[in-house]
Design a protein that fits this description.
Bound molecules: pyridoxal-5'-phosphate
Subcellular location: Cytoplasm
Catalytic activity: L-seryl-tRNA(Sec) + selenophosphate + H(+) = L-selenocysteinyl-tRNA(Sec) + phosphate
Structural class: alpha/beta
CATH superfamily of the largest domain: Type I PLP-dependent aspartate aminotransferase-like (Major domain)
Radius of gyration: 26 Å
Number of domains: 3
Protein name: L-seryl-tRNA(Sec) selenium transferase
Distance between the termini: 37 Å
GO molecular function, one term: transferase activity
Family: Belongs to the SelA family.
Strand content: 15-25%
Strand order of the largest sheet: 5-13-12-11-10-6-9
CATH class of the largest domain: Alpha Beta
Protein backbone atom coordinates (compact mmCIF):
# COMPACT_ATOMS: atom_id res chain seq x y z
CA UNK A 1 0.00 0.00 0.00
CA UNK A 2 1.16 3.51 -0.85
CA UNK A 3 2.38 5.74 2.00
CA UNK A 4 -0.44 8.25 2.58
CA UNK A 5 2.14 10.94 3.29
CA UNK A 6 3.38 10.71 -0.30
CA UNK A 7 -0.13 10.94 -1.76
CA UNK A 8 -1.05 13.98 0.37
CA UNK A 9 -1.52 17.09 -1.83
CA UNK A 10 0.34 20.32 -1.04
CA UNK A 11 -1.44 23.15 0.78
CA UNK A 12 -1.18 25.53 -2.18
CA UNK A 13 -2.69 22.89 -4.47
CA UNK A 14 -5.73 22.58 -2.23
CA UNK A 15 -6.02 26.36 -1.82
CA UNK A 16 -6.03 26.67 -5.63
CA UNK A 17 -9.13 24.48 -5.92
CA UNK A 18 -11.93 26.74 -7.27
CA UNK A 19 -14.32 25.94 -4.41
CA UNK A 20 -11.61 26.49 -1.80
CA UNK A 21 -10.56 29.73 -3.52
CA UNK A 22 -14.20 30.90 -3.44
CA UNK A 23 -14.29 30.15 0.28
CA UNK A 24 -11.14 32.25 0.76
CA UNK A 25 -12.88 35.15 -1.00
CA UNK A 26 -15.94 34.76 1.21
CA UNK A 27 -14.49 33.86 4.61
CA UNK A 28 -10.89 35.06 4.51
CA UNK A 29 -7.65 33.13 4.09
CA UNK A 30 -6.74 32.28 7.72
CA UNK A 31 -10.00 30.44 8.44
CA UNK A 32 -9.86 28.46 5.21
CA UNK A 33 -6.18 27.70 5.58
CA UNK A 34 -6.75 26.29 9.06
CA UNK A 35 -9.46 23.98 7.69
CA UNK A 36 -7.21 22.89 4.81
CA UNK A 37 -4.26 22.24 7.14
CA UNK A 38 -6.45 20.09 9.39
CA UNK A 39 -7.80 18.12 6.41
CA UNK A 40 -4.25 17.54 5.11
CA UNK A 41 -3.17 16.31 8.50
CA UNK A 42 -5.92 13.71 8.41
CA UNK A 43 -4.81 12.77 4.90
CA UNK A 44 -1.23 12.26 6.08
CA UNK A 45 -2.38 9.84 8.74
CA UNK A 46 -4.39 7.95 6.16
CA UNK A 47 -7.70 8.83 7.81
CA UNK A 48 -9.02 10.56 4.66
CA UNK A 49 -8.18 9.91 1.06
CA UNK A 50 -6.33 12.55 -1.02
CA UNK A 51 -9.42 12.90 -3.23
CA UNK A 52 -11.51 13.80 -0.16
CA UNK A 53 -9.29 16.58 1.19
CA UNK A 54 -11.16 19.43 -0.51
CA UNK A 55 -14.52 18.11 0.62
CA UNK A 56 -13.36 17.56 4.18
CA UNK A 57 -11.86 21.06 4.37
CA UNK A 58 -15.00 22.68 2.93
CA UNK A 59 -17.22 20.76 5.36
CA UNK A 60 -15.20 22.07 8.30
CA UNK A 61 -15.61 25.72 7.31
CA UNK A 62 -17.89 28.03 9.28
CA UNK A 63 -21.21 28.55 7.51
CA UNK A 64 -21.06 32.34 7.73
CA UNK A 65 -18.45 35.08 7.98
CA UNK A 66 -19.87 35.76 11.45
CA UNK A 67 -20.07 33.43 14.40
CA UNK A 68 -23.73 34.43 14.78
CA UNK A 69 -26.09 31.70 13.61
CA UNK A 70 -29.57 32.29 12.22
CA UNK A 71 -32.38 31.02 14.48
CA UNK A 72 -36.05 30.28 13.90
CA UNK A 73 -37.65 31.71 17.03
CA UNK A 74 -40.24 29.10 18.03
CA UNK A 75 -39.99 30.00 21.73
CA UNK A 76 -43.33 31.79 21.87
CA UNK A 77 -41.54 34.92 23.10
CA UNK A 78 -42.01 37.58 20.45
CA UNK A 79 -39.16 39.90 21.50
CA UNK A 80 -36.56 37.45 22.80
CA UNK A 81 -33.53 39.15 24.35
CA UNK A 82 -31.25 36.14 23.90
CA UNK A 83 -32.28 35.84 20.24
CA UNK A 84 -31.44 39.43 19.34
CA UNK A 85 -34.76 41.07 20.28
CA UNK A 86 -36.67 42.31 17.21
CA UNK A 87 -35.89 40.63 13.88
CA UNK A 88 -35.72 43.29 11.16
CA UNK A 89 -38.23 43.61 8.33
CA UNK A 90 -37.12 42.76 4.80
CA UNK A 91 -37.27 46.50 4.09
CA UNK A 92 -34.87 47.23 6.94
CA UNK A 93 -32.53 44.46 5.74
CA UNK A 94 -32.51 45.96 2.25
CA UNK A 95 -31.80 49.38 3.77
CA UNK A 96 -28.85 47.83 5.60
CA UNK A 97 -27.39 46.68 2.29
CA UNK A 98 -27.36 50.26 1.02
CA UNK A 99 -26.10 51.63 4.32
CA UNK A 100 -23.29 49.11 4.51
CA UNK A 101 -21.46 50.62 1.56
CA UNK A 102 -20.31 54.13 0.80
CA UNK A 103 -23.32 56.44 0.78
CA UNK A 104 -24.56 60.00 1.25
CA UNK A 105 -25.21 59.76 5.02
CA UNK A 106 -23.77 63.25 5.54
CA UNK A 107 -23.64 64.62 2.01
CA UNK A 108 -26.30 66.50 0.07
CA UNK A 109 -25.91 65.02 -3.40
CA UNK A 110 -27.92 67.89 -4.95
CA UNK A 111 -25.60 70.64 -3.74
CA UNK A 112 -22.46 68.63 -3.07
CA UNK A 113 -22.31 70.15 0.41
CA UNK A 114 -22.45 68.55 3.81
CA UNK A 115 -25.93 67.26 4.70
CA UNK A 116 -27.61 66.65 8.05
CA UNK A 117 -26.83 63.15 9.26
CA UNK A 118 -29.93 61.01 9.67
CA UNK A 119 -32.31 63.76 8.54
CA UNK A 120 -34.73 61.41 6.80
CA UNK A 121 -34.76 58.96 9.73
CA UNK A 122 -35.48 61.72 12.23
CA UNK A 123 -38.21 63.11 9.96
CA UNK A 124 -39.79 59.64 9.77
CA UNK A 125 -39.69 59.33 13.56
CA UNK A 126 -41.16 62.82 14.03
CA UNK A 127 -43.92 61.97 11.56
CA UNK A 128 -44.68 58.75 13.48
CA UNK A 129 -45.06 60.69 16.76
CA UNK A 130 -46.60 64.09 15.92
CA UNK A 131 -46.94 64.89 19.63
CA UNK A 132 -43.16 65.12 19.95
CA UNK A 133 -41.80 68.61 19.28
CA UNK A 134 -38.39 67.16 18.49
CA UNK A 135 -36.78 63.74 18.24
CA UNK A 136 -33.30 62.29 18.51
CA UNK A 137 -31.81 58.80 18.20
CA UNK A 138 -28.90 57.27 20.15
CA UNK A 139 -27.38 53.81 20.55
CA UNK A 140 -29.93 52.15 22.82
CA UNK A 141 -32.58 52.85 25.42
CA UNK A 142 -30.08 52.99 28.25
CA UNK A 143 -28.01 55.53 26.31
CA UNK A 144 -31.09 57.69 25.79
CA UNK A 145 -31.72 57.76 29.53
CA UNK A 146 -28.03 58.28 30.33
CA UNK A 147 -27.83 61.21 27.89
CA UNK A 148 -30.90 62.87 29.36
CA UNK A 149 -29.59 62.34 32.88
CA UNK A 150 -26.05 63.58 32.37
CA UNK A 151 -27.20 66.58 30.33
CA UNK A 152 -29.89 67.63 32.81
CA UNK A 153 -29.07 66.10 36.19
CA UNK A 154 -25.31 65.82 36.64
CA UNK A 155 -24.69 66.96 40.22
CA UNK A 156 -28.44 67.31 40.78
CA UNK A 157 -31.22 65.02 41.93
CA UNK A 158 -33.73 62.88 40.06
CA UNK A 159 -36.98 62.05 41.84
CA UNK A 160 -38.20 58.51 41.19
CA UNK A 161 -40.70 56.15 42.81
CA UNK A 162 -39.27 53.19 44.76
CA UNK A 163 -41.55 50.81 42.86
CA UNK A 164 -39.89 51.85 39.60
CA UNK A 165 -36.25 51.14 40.45
CA UNK A 166 -36.01 48.51 37.74
CA UNK A 167 -33.29 46.03 36.89
CA UNK A 168 -33.43 45.91 33.08
CA UNK A 169 -31.44 42.73 32.57
CA UNK A 170 -27.93 41.26 32.62
CA UNK A 171 -27.46 42.81 36.08
CA UNK A 172 -27.93 46.42 34.90
CA UNK A 173 -30.16 48.62 37.03
CA UNK A 174 -31.79 51.93 36.15
CA UNK A 175 -30.91 53.59 39.51
CA UNK A 176 -27.24 52.62 39.16
CA UNK A 177 -27.24 53.84 35.58
CA UNK A 178 -28.52 57.26 36.70
CA UNK A 179 -25.92 57.48 39.48
CA UNK A 180 -23.14 56.42 37.12
CA UNK A 181 -23.62 59.61 35.12
CA UNK A 182 -23.56 61.87 38.16
CA UNK A 183 -27.17 62.16 39.32
CA UNK A 184 -28.35 61.64 42.91
CA UNK A 185 -31.54 59.65 43.31
CA UNK A 186 -34.32 60.90 45.51
CA UNK A 187 -36.52 57.83 46.04
CA UNK A 188 -40.15 58.42 46.96
CA UNK A 189 -43.10 56.25 48.00
CA UNK A 190 -42.91 52.56 48.82
CA UNK A 191 -42.51 49.44 46.68
CA UNK A 192 -46.22 49.26 46.02
CA UNK A 193 -47.56 52.80 46.44
CA UNK A 194 -46.65 56.39 45.67
CA UNK A 195 -48.69 59.62 45.76
CA UNK A 196 -48.40 62.99 44.06
CA UNK A 197 -47.55 64.56 47.44
CA UNK A 198 -44.56 62.19 47.77
CA UNK A 199 -43.17 63.69 44.61
CA UNK A 200 -44.01 67.33 45.42
CA UNK A 201 -42.52 67.02 48.93
CA UNK A 202 -39.28 65.68 47.44
CA UNK A 203 -38.82 68.44 44.87
CA UNK A 204 -36.42 71.24 45.78
CA UNK A 205 -33.98 73.53 43.98
CA UNK A 206 -31.60 70.63 43.29
CA UNK A 207 -34.24 68.59 41.44
CA UNK A 208 -33.49 68.21 37.74
CA UNK A 209 -36.53 66.14 36.80
CA UNK A 210 -39.02 63.54 37.88
CA UNK A 211 -38.42 60.16 36.26
CA UNK A 212 -41.16 57.64 35.62
CA UNK A 213 -39.86 54.21 34.66
CA UNK A 214 -42.21 51.80 33.02
CA UNK A 215 -41.87 48.37 34.69
CA UNK A 216 -41.48 46.60 31.36
CA UNK A 217 -40.41 43.21 32.77
CA UNK A 218 -42.49 42.71 35.92
CA UNK A 219 -45.87 43.54 37.43
CA UNK A 220 -46.86 44.58 40.93
CA UNK A 221 -50.41 43.54 41.75
CA UNK A 222 -52.74 44.06 44.68
CA UNK A 223 -52.62 47.13 46.95
CA UNK A 224 -50.83 49.43 44.52
CA UNK A 225 -50.97 53.00 43.35
CA UNK A 226 -48.88 55.13 41.06
CA UNK A 227 -49.30 58.70 39.89
CA UNK A 228 -50.54 59.22 36.34
CA UNK A 229 -48.40 61.35 34.06
CA UNK A 230 -51.19 63.91 33.73
CA UNK A 231 -50.76 64.62 37.48
CA UNK A 232 -46.97 64.43 37.50
CA UNK A 233 -46.93 67.01 34.73
CA UNK A 234 -48.43 69.59 37.12
CA UNK A 235 -45.18 69.49 39.13
CA UNK A 236 -42.73 72.38 38.62
CA UNK A 237 -39.99 70.21 37.04
CA UNK A 238 -39.84 68.26 33.75
CA UNK A 239 -41.25 64.73 33.75
CA UNK A 240 -39.18 62.17 31.85
CA UNK A 241 -40.76 58.81 31.08
CA UNK A 242 -38.57 55.80 30.40
CA UNK A 243 -40.99 53.79 28.34
CA UNK A 244 -38.75 50.89 27.41
CA UNK A 245 -40.96 49.13 24.92
CA UNK A 246 -40.80 51.66 22.10
CA UNK A 247 -44.48 51.45 21.32
CA UNK A 248 -45.14 54.75 19.51
CA UNK A 249 -48.94 54.61 19.53
CA UNK A 250 -51.54 52.51 21.39
CA UNK A 251 -51.69 48.84 20.38
CA UNK A 252 -55.09 47.11 20.46
CA UNK A 253 -53.67 43.80 21.71
CA UNK A 254 -51.63 45.48 24.49
CA UNK A 255 -54.13 47.84 26.08
CA UNK A 256 -52.09 48.36 29.27
CA UNK A 257 -48.78 48.99 27.54
CA UNK A 258 -47.95 52.71 27.55
CA UNK A 259 -47.01 54.36 24.26
CA UNK A 260 -45.06 57.49 23.38
CA UNK A 261 -47.95 59.44 21.84
CA UNK A 262 -50.26 58.93 24.83
CA UNK A 263 -47.53 59.67 27.36
CA UNK A 264 -46.52 62.90 25.59
CA UNK A 265 -50.13 63.99 25.26
CA UNK A 266 -50.56 63.41 28.99
CA UNK A 267 -47.86 65.99 29.59
CA UNK A 268 -44.50 64.21 29.73
CA UNK A 269 -41.62 66.48 28.71
CA UNK A 270 -39.52 63.68 27.31
CA UNK A 271 -39.89 60.00 26.49
CA UNK A 272 -37.00 57.55 26.16
CA UNK A 273 -37.47 54.12 24.55
CA UNK A 274 -35.72 51.26 22.77
CA UNK A 275 -35.88 50.76 19.02
CA UNK A 276 -35.55 46.97 19.05
CA UNK A 277 -38.43 45.98 21.28
CA UNK A 278 -42.06 46.57 20.25
CA UNK A 279 -41.09 49.10 17.57
CA UNK A 280 -39.51 46.13 15.80
CA UNK A 281 -36.43 47.94 14.53
CA UNK A 282 -32.68 47.95 15.06
CA UNK A 283 -31.07 48.41 18.47
CA UNK A 284 -31.25 52.14 19.20
CA UNK A 285 -32.62 54.57 21.77
CA UNK A 286 -35.34 57.09 20.98
CA UNK A 287 -35.67 60.50 22.62
CA UNK A 288 -39.00 62.19 21.92
CA UNK A 289 -40.40 65.33 23.47
CA UNK A 290 -40.13 69.08 24.06
CA UNK A 291 -38.21 70.79 21.30
CA UNK A 292 -35.95 72.81 23.63
CA UNK A 293 -35.17 69.84 25.82
CA UNK A 294 -34.35 67.47 22.95
CA UNK A 295 -32.25 70.19 21.28
CA UNK A 296 -30.28 70.57 24.48
CA UNK A 297 -29.64 66.84 24.65
CA UNK A 298 -28.73 66.64 20.98
CA UNK A 299 -26.03 69.31 21.43
CA UNK A 300 -24.69 68.05 24.76
CA UNK A 301 -21.10 66.76 24.28
CA UNK A 302 -21.89 63.26 25.58
CA UNK A 303 -24.42 62.91 22.72
CA UNK A 304 -21.50 62.28 20.38
CA UNK A 305 -20.42 59.29 22.47
CA UNK A 306 -23.78 57.57 21.97
CA UNK A 307 -24.28 58.55 18.32
CA UNK A 308 -25.89 55.93 16.07
CA UNK A 309 -24.15 54.59 13.00
CA UNK A 310 -25.38 54.70 9.41
CA UNK A 311 -26.61 51.10 9.57
CA UNK A 312 -28.93 51.91 12.45
CA UNK A 313 -30.19 55.10 10.82
CA UNK A 314 -31.03 53.23 7.62
CA UNK A 315 -32.70 50.27 9.32
CA UNK A 316 -34.72 52.55 11.61
CA UNK A 317 -35.93 54.65 8.69
CA UNK A 318 -37.10 51.53 6.82
CA UNK A 319 -38.74 50.23 10.01
CA UNK A 320 -40.70 53.46 10.40
CA UNK A 321 -41.69 54.01 6.78
CA UNK A 322 -41.77 50.46 5.39
CA UNK A 323 -44.22 47.56 5.64
CA UNK A 324 -45.23 46.13 9.05
CA UNK A 325 -42.35 44.65 11.00
CA UNK A 326 -42.13 40.97 11.99
CA UNK A 327 -42.92 42.04 15.59
CA UNK A 328 -46.05 43.86 14.38
CA UNK A 329 -47.01 40.82 12.30
CA UNK A 330 -46.58 38.51 15.32
CA UNK A 331 -48.75 40.78 17.47
CA UNK A 332 -51.40 40.91 14.73
CA UNK A 333 -51.46 37.14 14.21
CA UNK A 334 -54.73 35.34 14.94
CA UNK A 335 -54.68 32.21 17.11
CA UNK A 336 -56.94 30.34 14.67
CA UNK A 337 -54.55 30.97 11.79
CA UNK A 338 -51.61 29.87 13.92
CA UNK A 339 -53.48 26.68 14.85
CA UNK A 340 -54.12 25.92 11.17
CA UNK A 341 -50.42 26.30 10.48
CA UNK A 342 -49.51 24.12 13.46
CA UNK A 343 -51.97 21.44 12.26
CA UNK A 344 -50.48 21.45 8.77
CA UNK A 345 -46.97 21.07 10.15
CA UNK A 346 -48.02 18.37 12.61
CA UNK A 347 -49.86 16.34 9.94
CA UNK A 348 -46.71 16.36 7.82
CA UNK A 349 -44.90 14.92 10.85
CA UNK A 350 -47.36 12.36 12.19
CA UNK A 351 -44.77 9.56 12.10
CA UNK A 352 -42.64 11.67 14.46
CA UNK A 353 -45.25 11.94 17.22
CA UNK A 354 -46.21 15.54 16.35
CA UNK A 355 -49.47 17.24 17.26
CA UNK A 356 -50.88 20.74 17.07
CA UNK A 357 -51.78 22.41 20.36
CA UNK A 358 -53.02 25.78 21.54
CA UNK A 359 -50.35 27.66 23.46
CA UNK A 360 -49.70 30.82 25.40
CA UNK A 361 -47.09 33.19 24.02
CA UNK A 362 -45.60 36.34 25.55
CA UNK A 363 -44.29 39.66 24.33
CA UNK A 364 -41.02 39.10 26.21
CA UNK A 365 -38.30 41.48 27.34
CA UNK A 366 -39.84 44.11 25.11
CA UNK A 367 -42.75 44.91 27.39
CA UNK A 368 -46.28 43.95 28.39
CA UNK A 369 -45.24 41.72 31.30
CA UNK A 370 -47.89 39.18 32.23
CA UNK A 371 -49.84 39.62 28.99
CA UNK A 372 -50.76 36.26 27.47
CA UNK A 373 -50.89 36.13 23.69
CA UNK A 374 -53.06 33.26 22.50
CA UNK A 375 -51.04 31.20 20.08
CA UNK A 376 -50.51 27.70 18.71
CA UNK A 377 -47.57 25.32 18.67
CA UNK A 378 -46.35 22.04 17.24
CA UNK A 379 -45.83 19.59 20.12
CA UNK A 380 -42.94 17.12 19.67
CA UNK A 381 -40.85 14.70 21.73
CA UNK A 382 -38.61 16.72 24.04
CA UNK A 383 -35.43 14.94 22.96
CA UNK A 384 -35.62 16.76 19.62
CA UNK A 385 -34.89 20.09 21.31
CA UNK A 386 -31.10 19.78 21.40
CA UNK A 387 -30.55 18.47 17.83
CA UNK A 388 -32.93 21.11 16.41
CA UNK A 389 -30.70 23.79 17.96
CA UNK A 390 -27.72 22.45 15.98
CA UNK A 391 -29.27 22.98 12.54
CA UNK A 392 -28.86 25.85 10.13
CA UNK A 393 -31.02 27.73 10.79
CA UNK A 394 -31.25 26.54 14.37
CA UNK A 395 -34.81 25.87 15.55
CA UNK A 396 -35.33 26.99 19.15
CA UNK A 397 -38.51 26.05 20.96
CA UNK A 398 -39.26 25.47 24.63
CA UNK A 399 -39.89 22.35 26.65
CA UNK A 400 -43.09 22.22 28.69
CA UNK A 401 -44.08 19.18 30.72
CA UNK A 402 -41.87 16.79 28.80
CA UNK A 403 -42.82 18.01 25.32
CA UNK A 404 -40.98 20.31 22.94
CA UNK A 405 -43.32 23.10 21.86
CA UNK A 406 -42.52 24.96 18.66
CA UNK A 407 -44.69 28.05 19.04
CA UNK A 408 -45.57 29.72 15.75
CA UNK A 409 -46.42 33.27 16.88
CA UNK A 410 -42.95 34.61 16.12
CA UNK A 411 -42.27 32.31 13.16
CA UNK A 412 -43.04 33.82 9.74
CA UNK A 413 -45.22 31.39 7.74
CA UNK A 414 -42.53 31.01 5.07
CA UNK A 415 -40.48 29.02 7.62
CA UNK A 416 -43.17 26.35 8.16
CA UNK A 417 -41.69 24.09 5.48
CA UNK A 418 -38.21 24.55 6.98
CA UNK A 419 -39.58 23.40 10.35
CA UNK A 420 -41.04 20.25 8.77
CA UNK A 421 -37.72 19.48 7.08
CA UNK A 422 -35.73 20.24 10.23
CA UNK A 423 -37.79 17.83 12.35
CA UNK A 424 -37.61 15.11 9.69
CA UNK A 425 -33.87 15.50 9.55
CA UNK A 426 -33.17 15.27 13.28
CA UNK A 427 -35.81 12.57 13.87
CA UNK A 428 -34.22 10.43 11.15
CA UNK A 429 -30.68 10.96 12.53
CA UNK A 430 -31.78 10.20 16.08
C1 LIG B 1 -35.32 47.78 27.87
C2 LIG B 1 -35.43 48.91 28.80
C3 LIG B 1 -34.37 49.79 28.97
C4 LIG B 1 -33.04 49.59 28.29
O1 LIG B 1 -33.12 49.77 26.91
P1 LIG B 1 -31.95 49.17 26.00
O2 LIG B 1 -32.40 49.52 24.63
O3 LIG B 1 -31.89 47.72 26.28
O4 LIG B 1 -30.69 49.87 26.39
C5 LIG B 1 -34.52 50.84 29.82
N1 LIG B 1 -35.68 51.03 30.49
C6 LIG B 1 -36.74 50.21 30.34
C7 LIG B 1 -37.98 50.48 31.10
C8 LIG B 1 -36.65 49.11 29.50
O5 LIG B 1 -37.68 48.29 29.36
Amino acid sequence: MQDPRRATPRTDQVLADPQVAAAVTRLGRPVVKRAVTAALERCRTGEVDASQVVGVALAALPLYPTSLRPVINATGVVVHTNLGRAPLSDAAREALQVAAGTNDVELDLATGRRGRRGAATLAALAAAVPDAGEVHVVNNGAAALALATCALAMGRTVVVARGELVEIGDGFRIPELLESVGATLREVGTTNRVRLSDYSDAIDESTAFVLKVHPSNFRVEGFTSSVPISELSTLPVPVIVDLGSGLLAPHPRLPDEPDAATVLRAGASLVTASGDKLLGGPQCGLLLGDRDLVDRLRRFPFARAVRVDKLTLAALEATLTGPPTPVAAALASRPEDLLLRASAIASALTEHDASAVRSEAAVGGGGAPGVVLESAAVSLPADLAAPLRQLDPAVVGHVVRGRLLLDLIAVPAEFDEAIVEAVRRVAKDG
